[in-house]
């Protein structure tokens, strides 16, 4: 089965290693490569998807900055309900056309339940309303989030996400900067869906002064595994979900979309995959 990751600046991605490893566990031969938009100048992700179909690929994982840009290529969702999110990070090529899934959405739900069981998210403050933020927001809605307060440097983006969540029965608001600290202090959970904290984007979406009274936290960043944000949350006694939790479970869900084979995340698989990351 020929697969690849489509994105920009993805040369260090561990997704090929994960998909090869999952294939080896169940006897599925995987040929997995990288399609890096940075090698194509002004890359058109839709053209790169069509090219991959012509070259005999069976499917693609899609990452930043193309998840929303490939949305209109999809004929139908591979998993019911994934079309409402507005972006796809998994494309499966079939005779019926391109099927799409957002395994950030389903992977976050699985990762949350893996770490927190049936505990409800409560009131959550989330920074970042882009592609991954939208997937996590809908994941929180599925998990029974009581209320979601969204902060983004582009208020129009946060407005659009909050409005969409309300259409599907969620309780959501957009936070102005002046209200952000007080609302964050009173929340049950803190969620970072910005790039802040990555090796190339140092920083923290949440001031240290607001961290400590909450119950749990999640950071979508997994390079590095321990961001400033998560280290501060751990020191304050919060239960933490890392970007690795999202990465491993969205990868498992993508493998299932591609192959039809479900693999459970046991401790051996978790420890093996962790050893690949720094």
TrEMBL record:
GO CC field: cytosol
UniProt keyword Oxidoreductase present: yes
Any single GO BP term: chorismate biosynthetic process
SUPFAM superfamilies: Aminoacid dehydrogenase-like, N-terminal domain, NAD(P)-binding Rossmann-fold domains
Molecular function in Gene Ontology: NADP binding; shikimate 3-dehydrogenase (NADP+) activity
InterPro entries, sorted: Aminoacid_DH-like_N_sf (IPR046346), NAD(P)-bd_dom_sf (IPR036291), Shikimate_DH-bd_N (IPR013708), Shikimate_DH_fam (IPR022893)
Coiled-coil residue spans: none
Keywords of the record: Amino-acid biosynthesis, Aromatic amino acid biosynthesis, NADP, Oxidoreductase
Pfam families in alphabetical order: Shikimate_dh_N (PF08501)
Protein name: Shikimate dehydrogenase
CDD domains xrefs: NAD_bind_Shikimate_DH
Domain Shikimate dehydrogenase substrate binding N-terminal, first and last residues per copy: 5-91
Pathway per the UniProt entry: Metabolic intermediate biosynthesis; chorismate biosynthesis; chorismate from D-erythrose 4-phosphate and phosphoenolpyruvate: step 4/7
Protein's organism: Parahaliea maris
Record has NADP as a keyword: yes
């Amino acid at each position: 089965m020929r697969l690849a990751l489509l994105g920009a600046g993805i040369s260090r991605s561990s997704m090929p290693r994960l998909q090869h490893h999952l294939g080896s566990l169940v006897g599925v031969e995987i040929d997995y490569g990288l399609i890096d938009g940075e090698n194509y100048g002004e890359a058109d992700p839709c053209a790169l998807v069509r090219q991959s179909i012509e070259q005999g690929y069976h499917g693609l994982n899609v990452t930043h900055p193309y998840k929303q840009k490939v949305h209109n290529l999809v004929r139908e969702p591979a998993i019911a309900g994934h079309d409402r999110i507005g972006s796809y990070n998994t494309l499966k090529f079939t005779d019926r056309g391109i099927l799409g899934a957002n395994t950030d959405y389903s992977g976050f739900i699985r990762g949350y339940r893996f770490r927190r069981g049936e505990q409800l998210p409560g009131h959550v403050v989330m920074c970042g309303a882009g592609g991954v933020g939208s997937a996590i927001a809908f994941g929180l809605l599925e998990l029974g989030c009581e209320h979601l307060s969204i902060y983004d440097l582009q208020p129009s983006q946060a407005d659009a996400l909050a409005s969409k969540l309300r259409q599907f029965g969620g309780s959501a608001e957009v936070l102005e900067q002046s209200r952000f600290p007080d609302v964050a202090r009173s929340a049950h959970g803190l969620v970072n869906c910005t790039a802040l904290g990555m090796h190339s984007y140092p920083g923290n979406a949440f001031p240290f002064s607001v961290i400590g009274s909450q119950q749990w936290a999640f950071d979508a960043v997994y390079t590095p595994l321990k961001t400033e944000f998560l280290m501060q949350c751990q020191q304050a006694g919060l239960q933490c979900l890392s970007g690795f939790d999202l990465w491993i479970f969205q990868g498992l869900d993508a493998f299932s979309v591609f192959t039809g084979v479900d693999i459970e995340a046991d401790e051996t698989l978790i420890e093996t995959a962790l050893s690949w990351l720094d």
